[in-house]
Amino acid sequence: MKVKKSKAGEIDYILFYTIFLLVAIGVVMVYSASSYTALVNQASHDSTLFLKKQALCALIGALIMFFAIKIDYHIFRKWCGWIMLATFACLILVLIVGVEVKGAKRWIRIAGQQFQPSELAKYAIVIFLAVVIEKNINKISEPKFVIFRLLLISGLFSGLVLMEKNLSIASVILMVTLIILYVAGIPKKFFYTLLGCGAIFGGLGIALESYRLKRFLTFLHPFQDPSGDGYQLIQSFYALGAGGITGLGLGQSRQKTLYMPEPHNDFIFSIIGEELGLIGCIILIILFIVLIYRGILISMKAKDTLGSLVAIGITSVIAIQAIINIAVVTGSMPVTGVPLPFISYGGTSLIVNMGAMGVLLNISRQTK
């Protein structure tokens, strides 16, 4: 069924400003958290090294976001196959010629820059599921269709990401898949069965890798290994505790001075807590809640199934990653490498997330 384009064409400005607030906070905090590490550990001894890279990626991400806002999201019906093929090729390429860092191959080096295909894979799966479900919405209650048309492809992409030693992103892909299937209307008994199977496979993924099992056990008692696997989580506790209610002040973190390993990455939330205190953390969490709430509203008001499922998928990716990251930093779940969207240092993550926000804003232009 053809859908008329919205004449009003107004985006969700609450979501728009929330995104840019998060990006602005991210750029500032990346500089604050990384300045000492960049000055001492990097060959250039430039305290603004990570700031320059993150600011450049934020600018590129903004341009891509504005471009995505102008492009009708219904184009995914035509380009879904090519997007999946390109993402699949990139994931295979990582396993063959990927850059290995700390025993994990997750990046491809292109023209001197590193690109992480798993960041793209999360949204490729969202698009794939939305397009296929829309075309076959009458089959959504059939287990064969769900297993062999949807879960098989999602599982394949998740498996390739897992082969890169990236259980966290592989888990995000599967969790987003389950959310989209639930929203699409699969039978509840079938959904709970899939949920149980997912929990079993997740447990096996932890148990079969000694380093993951050790991380899980250390999370329960981090102070039993204070100089080993428990070190980073303990430093996070120190940072959050030192920040108190109002924080030590922007740029005044002590844990970033070579106590916290790579404080500008996955544990940047603890530096925010140390410098801006509980108040700063709550403000950041509120911004994520606003983003998630607006994303859900856009999904509910979308004029067709494609828009609704793409919107809920994109929103779920951000929500899951934010929840996992904050839970890890506060010691509520085992340590895993999930960046905080828009905040943690990482060019690929920032650019891809902002591009996805552009798609979400485009859907908001075409609501009922």
TrEMBL record:
Q: Which UniProt keywords apply?
A: Cell cycle, Cell division, Cell membrane, Cell shape, Cell wall biogenesis/degradation, Glycosyltransferase, Membrane, Peptidoglycan synthesis, Transferase, Transmembrane, Transmembrane helix
Part of which pathway?
Cell wall biogenesis; peptidoglycan biosynthesis
Identify its membrane topology class: Multi-pass membrane protein
Q: What residue ranges are annotated as transmembrane?
A: 12-31, 51-69, 81-100, 120-137, 146-163, 169-185, 190-208, 267-293, 305-330, 342-363
Q: Which GO terms describe its molecular function?
A: lipid-linked peptidoglycan transporter activity; peptidoglycan glycosyltransferase activity
Q: Where in the cell is it found?
A: Cell membrane
Primary localization class, coarse: membrane
Which superkingdom?
Bacteria
> What is the catalytic activity of this protein?
[GlcNAc-(1->4)-Mur2Ac(oyl-L-Ala-gamma-D-Glu-L-Lys-D-Ala-D-Ala)](n)-di-trans,octa-cis-undecaprenyl diphosphate + beta-D-GlcNAc-(1->4)-Mur2Ac(oyl-L-Ala-gamma-D-Glu-L-Lys-D-Ala-D-Ala)-di-trans,octa-cis-undecaprenyl diphosphate = [GlcNAc-(1->4)-Mur2Ac(oyl-L-Ala-gamma-D-Glu-L-Lys-D-Ala-D-Ala)](n+1)-di-trans,octa-cis-undecaprenyl diphosphate + di-trans,octa-cis-undecaprenyl diphosphate + H(+)
Pfam family name, one: FTSW_RODA_SPOVE
PANTHER family recorded for this chain?
CELL CYCLE PROTEIN, PEPTIDOGLYCAN GLYCOSYLTRANSFERASE FTSW-RELATED
Stated role? Peptidoglycan polymerase that is essential for cell division.
Protein name as catalogued = Probable peptidoglycan glycosyltransferase FtsW
Native source species: Inconstantimicrobium porci
User: Which gene is transcribed and translated to give this protein?
Assistant: ftsW
